[in-house]
Design brief:
The chain is of the alpha/beta class and about 280 residues long. The protein contains twelve helices and nine strands. Helix 2 crosses helix 3, helix 8 packs across helix 12 and helix 9 packs across helix 12. Bound molecules: S-adenosylmethionine. The site of S-adenosylmethionine has 23 residues, from strand 1, helix 3 and strand 3.
């Protein structure tokens, strides 16, 4: 049966290339091109944009991004079995798909970024998703605003809730502080397990993040130290949990009540603490 983009249906592609899903690689494929288009559309206009995609797999999301007019997709895939299927997509969209076989965790995305707008769109392998997000939020080269204009990423819903959480929310923690400090982050829509092949155990969610142009000034390493100490013992009062980084004296200096708990502090208060370290 023909598809909207004229390429074969994904189920057929998977069968023909023997792409049975490997759990160790977090392979839960999306085979519905309407759904992959919906994800790609939530990244906003793609005309003239270079898109970095992590884990294209058989290429459902890649096809959606290309059909929506991205100038180019640079896709990083660890599983070499997927390369022939991706090459077929590359032939269909000549000059617009570069596939890099490799581990996204070891990829220097910033070095690969061309001139012009770059967006990152991915249905991430769950075992590396959080670390990749942290790498994009806290790049080694310290550059901010970063090379990317937006991140549109699929996570387990639990992780999505942690990314967008504000203070006084049960899901608020280190990830919420880091994402809230540097970006404006929101959840776009949920995707049920049945949408994937094979279905994962949990619901997933698409999160969209755009960088703040002027995040509150703060040293990353210091913010990491205070959030790690504070949320390492999140149920304790801050005078106790922050002992390794200065305890009560630090809190008094920052004008924060030492009897409060980590989850009640806003991003601005965490930044104040970090700047008093
Ligand atoms: N994008 C496809 C889709 O939506 O159907 C596949 C998504 S699947 C959840 C995750 C993909 O990431 C798999 O193709 C897997 O092989 C790939 N992958 C896993 N670990 C990776 C890594 N460290 N670097 C790059 N790709 C990885």
């Amino acid at each position: 049966m023909a598809t909207l983009d004229g390429l074969p249906p994904l189920r057929e592609v998977i069968q023909r290339h023997g792409l049975d899903a490997k759990k160790a690689l977090g392979q839960n494929f999306l085979l519905d091109l309407n759904l992959t288009q919906k994800i790609a559309r939530s990244a906003g206009p793609l005309n003239g944009v270079t898109v970095f995609e992590v884990g294209p797999g058989p290429g459902g999301l890649t096809r959606a991004i290309l059909s929506l007019g991205a100038k180019k997709v640079v896709a990083i895939e660890r599983d070499s079995r997927c390369l022939p299927a991706l090459a077929e997509i590359g032939d269909h969209y000549p000059g617009r798909l570069d596939v890099i076989e490799g581990d996204a965790l070891k990829t220097d995305f910033s070095a690969l970024a061309p001139e012009g707008p770059v967006k990152i769109i991915a249905n991430l392998p769950y075992n590396v998703g959080t670390q990749l997000l942290i790498n994009w939020l806290l790049p080694d080269d310290g550059r901010w605003p970063p090379f990317w204009e937006s991140l549109t990423l699929m996570f387990q819903k639990e992780v999505g809730l942690r990314i967008v959480a504000d203070e006084d929310d049960d899901h608020y923690g280190r990830l919420g502080v880091l994402a809230g400090w540097r970006t404006d982050a929101h959840m776009v829509f949920d995707v049920p397990p049945q949408a994937f092949t094979p279905p994962p155990k949990v619901t997933s969610t698409v999160v969209h993040l755009t960088p703040r142009t002027n995040p509150l000034p703060c040293e990353v390493a210091k913010l990491e130290r205070v959030t790690q100490a504070a949320f390492g013992q999140r149920r304790k009062m801050l005078r106790q949990s922050l002992k390794p980084v200065g305890g009560e004296a630090l809190l008094v200096k920052a004008g924060i009540d030492p009897a409060r708990r980590a989850e009640t502090l806003s991003v601005e208060e965490f930044v104040r603490l970090a700047n008093c370290l």
